[in-house]
Amino acid sequence: MKATDAPPRIYPIRLYGDPVLRRKAKPVQPGDTLTVPGFGPQTVREVANTMLETMFEARGVGLAAPQVGLSVRLFVAVEYEDDEEENEGGDKPLKSRVLREFVMLNPVLTVTDKKKDRAYQEGCLSIPGIYEEGVARARGVQVRYTDLDGQERTLEADDYLARVFQHETDHLDGVFFLDRLPPEVTEDYRKELAAMQRKSKQFLAELAEVQKAQRESRE
Description:
Layout: E1 33-35, E2 41-43, H1 44-57, E3 62-64, E4 74-80, E5 98-117, E6 137-146, E7 152-158, H2 159-172, H3 183-188, H4 190-218
Antiparallel strand pairs: 1-2, 3-4, 4-5, 5-6, 6-7
GO molecular function: metal ion binding; peptide deformylase activity
Binding site for Fe cation: 124, 167, 171
InterPro entries: Peptide_deformylase, Peptide_deformylase_sf
């Protein structure tokens, strides 16, 4: 990951070990100006569009603002023609198979089907290469959220899409999918997670240098 002050096409995705991923995100409004660390100010719409591009580049199904360093309650997600588990590192984006794109500000989930589903394999773009079954998610949810035009919306989802929305909302509360599995699962990946933490620490050090240079250039 390299921090930059150039206009972004995609953002660096924050990795396990980055403190921003453990913070409870704050509400955001469509008219806000946001600054992804290392980049210039952008509108919420611009940030959301770049997050979508970042998600497609990483072959993901969802991406929450904390995963790009913004502690605000915003996530983007996509519904493909068939269920697509996150598969970062693929050869090309999946846009040709997109049915719907979602941008949700300040989402609030209500469970509509309390039956738990543990069948799907779950992964996370902030924990690349690690996938596990057994994460219990409600089979149906209703999401109340604000769209980019400031309109209040309600959407119902079930099965895989419901899982995606629950996963991304967890990110806004500082929760990883591994947190919802027995502790020994995380322990099984101790070496991999430690490597991610080291990489995250290196990125944050590089980012601090970029931000310092940006401040000095404005003085």
